[in-house]
Amino acid sequence: MSAPAGPVLAAGCVLWRLSPYDGGLEICLVHRPRYDDWSFPKGKLKRGEPALAGALREVLEETGHHCTPGVRLPTSRYEVNGRPKEVAYWAAEATGGSFAPNDEVDRLLWLPPSSARTRLTRPRDHAQLDALLAVLRSA
Question: Are the C-beta atoms of 109 and 29 separated by less than 8 Å?
Answer without folding.
Answer: yes
